[in-house]
Amino acid sequence: MLKLATEIVPVHTTHPFVISRGGASEWRTVTVRVRDADGAEGWGEAAPSRFYGETPESVVAAVERFQDAIGDLDAWSLEEAEARMHRALRFNGAAKTGVSAALHDLAAKRAGLPLWKLWGLDPAKAPPSSFTIAIADDDAVLRARIAEAAQYPVLKVKLGSPRGLARDQQIIRIVREEAPDKVLRVDANAAWTAKGALEIGELLAALGVEFIEQPLPPHDLDGMRFVRDRSPLPVVADESCVMASDVPRLAGVVDGVNLKLAKCGGLREAMRLIATARSHGLLVMAGCMIETSLGITAAAHLAPLLDCADLDGAALLSDDPYAGATITGGAIRLPDGPGLGVTRR
User: Fold this and answer.
1) Residues labelled catalytic
2) What angle do CA 30, 31, 36 make, to 5 degrees?
3) Would you say domain 117-344 falls under CATH 3.20.20.120?
4) Does 187 appear as a known binding residue?
5) Phi/psi at 61 (nearest 5 deg)?
6) Which residues carry out catalysis (predicted)?
């Protein structure tokens, strides 16, 4: 028997985190706890996004539904738990992931092993994580943010400024000027048109950007294909790729996919997404929302299976209540403790 519980946790970014859809300094995640009949407990995190139709309150309500769906299972019924949650609610990916991560934490704790070891993975194979430079209207603020990211060899630059393509061009020029030797990746968060993406793509290529993430709206796959076929840079889908079932239709449309646990609905589904993307010859990266180390550590356990990682959500916080995986200098380090290896600070 399993007992599920939730707690809404307010957290704050060190600076306002702004992307093309807006930004904030305060965020609310949801800690999910799963306790079995023997009193052993696993922890997971849901990082809801309104873009995907979720709020902290909807996560709490969804987890209450999941209590009825999976309460009679044990800690080892990981695949069945995700299947039942999916049958109970079609969407609600962040809520499902919170429960899934807690169940994986519980199962690995029961085994007395770190989750990565239970999975048979080698943490040394994890790629470096990028660090995100959010949109800034002020050049001095932008330069200060880049300076603060000095330890990170890979920067992910958010574009799609409300001031338009001209400001995006200014931003990427400033970033390259301040970080002449770093790997740069660009994420437009679906803010551009096909014409705009191709226009700025020439500049991005000239500045040595590695790839463009989600240049167009999620459902404009014809537009994404048009850009990918003409762009000097690879194109990676984020908002267009939610679950493993989305991957086949993206083959030939983009060059890679960005997995997020908060989108896909669980660690088992994440594994399926990775395997499906590999079978279609796509680059695989994992990203994150603004999350505490509880959520980031769950995602970081997938890192040895990835080509690229963007797992800086907790590094952007000023008040992370958990300790777990770290990305010091971009290097992803997984905990050695049982389960996810996460502790309260």
Assistant:
1) 158, 260
2) 140
3) yes
4) yes
5) -65, -40
6) 158, 260
